[in-house]
Each structure stands twice: as structure tokens, then as C-alpha cells.
Description:
13 strands, 46% helix, alpha/beta
Amino acid sequence: xxxxxxxxxxxxxxxxxxxxxxxxxxxxxxxxxxxxxxxxxxxxxxxxxxxxxxxxxxxxxxxxxxxxxxxxxxxxxxxxxxxxxxxxxxxxxxxxxxxxxxxxxxxxxxxxxxxxxxxxxxxxxxxxxxxxxxxxxxxxxxxxxxxxxxxxxxxxxxxxxxxxxxxxxxxxxxxxxxxxxxxxxxxxxxxxxxxxxxxxxxxxxxxxxxxxxxxxxxxxxxxxxxxxxxxxxxxxxxxxxxxxxxxxxxxxxxxxxxxxxxxxxxxxxxxxxxxxxxxxxxxxxxxxxxxxxxxxxxxxxxxxxxxxxxxxxxxxxxxxxxxxxxxxxxxxxxxxxxxxxxxxxxxxxxxxxxxxxxxxxxxxxxxxxxxxxxxxxxxxxxxxxxxxxxxxxxxxxxxxxxxxxxxxxxxxxxxxxxxxxxxxxxxxxxxxxxxxxxxxxxxxxxxxxxxxxxxxxxxxxxxxxxxxxxxxx
Length: 473
Ligand SMILES: Nc1nc2c(ncn2[C@@H]2O[C@H](COP(=O)(O)OP(=O)(O)OP(=O)(O)O)[C@@H](O)[C@H]2O)c(=O)[nH]1
Ligand SMILES: [Mg+2]
């Protein structure tokens, strides 16, 4: 069997072509900003793909450390996330505290002010800049009397809206359920009490036992069952990717993964280097499904390039868990291209956040090339500053193509070389093996002799075996 058949590079992709990406973008825009639907959480067990519609929102942050600018940036990022989810951001407040209030997240005074802002702006949702405990969510809801969600849920909601593949949808559902499980009692409770007009009942008191308690138990059981089912399905879905990765590995083809902050230009770089035509959008978390493409360096060495989901500060751990199989493209890479948006206000913070996630998924020790993207619009001072702290970084523009050739050469120099020296005479009819030696290894000499091609080269293990076999035939 021709090993290239087993490898089947063209079957590696999950997205098809640029027209697909165009369609997808149109569809996504058409779906955005669904206003006027109920924001009431009716049945928390219905963890479908778009459970919470965020509409007119007020943001609230607690700022425990760092500078004012960092606090402002964090809230600005929350606003961007909220807009990506389809909300209209009306106002934002942030409070300086040593730690968030254990009961109400914001201090109770500030929470009261927040209520005023909610009334004045006619907001229907408050989004907090962190992950709140079930108790904090409930107590704050009681004060502001509109739905309160946290940053984690917001990110989960964006993922739910952007998930396209069956695997992506299953991963997001799993993450949402994991988030909801401990929050079943309480979250949305004050609201449904309000809406349903159920009388009185201090939280956790008499009113929550009896039939209510039974319902929560049933809900929990249903969620747990669904989670088990999803985990099983996800395992099954990840199989073909694992098989493909293993085949690539055996063929000695190095794997390069693009990782980086969301919206830094990862998909643009994949498109630029391989013509993959995947979706590019000025939005957070445009890409959820991995795309792997085979390509080669200027000197003809093959490698695969994988584009995958972007990272963000405090990426919810539920998502990291659920997207584990997707993130294996990064975990199993021989080299990581860590893309950073050079035009961002705080690129160093982005680098830090990405490295945190890389460490969390045990990819922290993989060789990493920092790639500063968007050089065409980045301020030169900022790029210079970045280069001071990351002196080995490459400066490119996925948009204009500047710096791409240099980057490819750097990738080439960094590709692992698990090569074996061989010196064989291969029959002329096996010209396929000779061309693979050229694309996968280093050819030192080729001489044409009577019995075939005399090849002196350093090639991947698997090819070496085949060459030796062919030589002995
Ligand atoms: N000016 C400029 N814009 C760029 C460049 N590279 C990407 N962009 C833009 O940045 C935005 C995000 O690009 P993507 O390639 O979708 O970024 P991504 O990292 O894949 O984003 P996610 O998948 O959402 O995490 C798009 O609007 C791109 O057109 C660049 O070199 N210069
Ligand atoms: Mg992308």
C-alpha cells in the first residue's frame, strides 16, 4: 500500500473551502442580535445551544490587583465579549476591593448603586467580570432584580452560538452542563419566583424543599446522565482525529499548531500559509473547530499546520476540560506558533494569558515561536517593546503577507528531525520513494546507477524502512 494513501492529507480538514467560510459568516451575522426574546431562564436543564439571550446589559467588575488601566481593559474586554454574544452594553461599573464580596460579589453599597444603574438604563441583565459562586449569583440577583450572569457563562454562551460541528456543539453542551450542575439550586430562582409570583420563602428555607427539592434532584440526575452520554460521544468523535494524528506521526510529518489569543489572526495565518479558506472574522472565538492542513517549507519539507480555538484571560476551565480533544492538536504539536496581535493595547498580557492556558493543557514545554501579527496596523513602538521582551519573535502580517517567508524558514529550522541516515539503491520503479525522501527528509546525494537510484539521505524512520525494503526486493 502506498503510505501516502493511508495518510490521505486531503481528508484532514474539517472545513471545506472559502465559499463555505463566506456562507458561515453570513449565517452568523444573520443570527446575531436576537432582541425581544425572553431572557427568563425557564428550565435550566435545557442546556441547548443558546440558552441565555443576553440583551441590554450592564457590566460589573471587581478589581483586586493591578493598575487602573488593567482594570479598565478587563472591563473593555468584557464589553467586547458581551457584544460578541449579541448584547447591547449600556454601562459598566468596577469596584476596587481586596477580594470580591463573598456574599454579593460587589460590596453591598455598590450593588445598590448597580440596581440604580439597571433601573436608569432599563437593562435586563448584569454581567459580572469573573466566575461567581452560585450564592453570589443568587444574592446579587436579589438586589439588582434582573438576571445576573458571569464572565464564564458569557464565554460559554458565545461558544454555544459559534459551535458549528457536531463535536463543537457537544463540547460546549458538556461545558455548560458542568457549569450549571452546581448552580441548579438558586440561579434564576429569585427571578422565577418573581415571575411566577410564588409567595415569600427565604432562600434555602421551607419553600425550597418538598416538590422543589425533588425537581432539582431530577434535574441533576438528568444533567449527569446527559453529561455521561456526551463524554462517551465526544470520545468517539475524537477518534478519527487521533487516528489521523498517529498516521501523520508515523509518516514522520511534523505537526505545527497555531495557538494564541482570540482574534489575533490564527485563522488568517493558516489561510495565508496554506490557502485553507477557513472563517476569518473580527470577532472573539470565531474558530472553535480545529482545521489541519498539510503544507511545506520553502525547501520542500512537509509539515501539518493546525488552527484551533483561541484563548482568553481566565478561559473557563469547563471549556478547557470539554475541549480537551480539540486542544490535543496543540498538545501533540512538535512546534507551537504563538500568535499575538501586535496592534492590541496589551499584547504582553495576552502572551501571559496564552501561556497560562498552554501550561494548563500541558503544552507549556513544547517549543514555541512567538509571532507578532498585524504588523501593518501595529504601532512601531509597541512592536519594538514586544521585541524587547520577546527578542526571538517574528513580525508578520497575515493580511499583507509581510514576514511570512522568514517565518516559514524559521519553522523549517525548528522542525524536529528524527531522521535516520540511509545509503541505498532503490529500483527505478519506486520513484515515489525518492520524491518522498525529498519532501520528508534531507537528500544528500542522488546517483543513477544501473540497478536504480543510489540515494544517500536522512529520512524519517518509516520512510527509511520502506526504502530498505524496496532496496532488498
Ligand atoms: N490589519 C490586519 N488585520 C488582520 C491581520 N490578521 C488578521 N487580521 C484581522 O483580524 C481579525 C481576526 O482574524 P482571525 O484570523 O479570524 O483571528 P483568529 O485568531 O483566528 O480569531 P478566533 O478564531 O476568533 O480566535 C479579522 O478581522 C482579520 O481580518 C493582519 O495581519 N493585519
Ligand atoms: Mg480563528
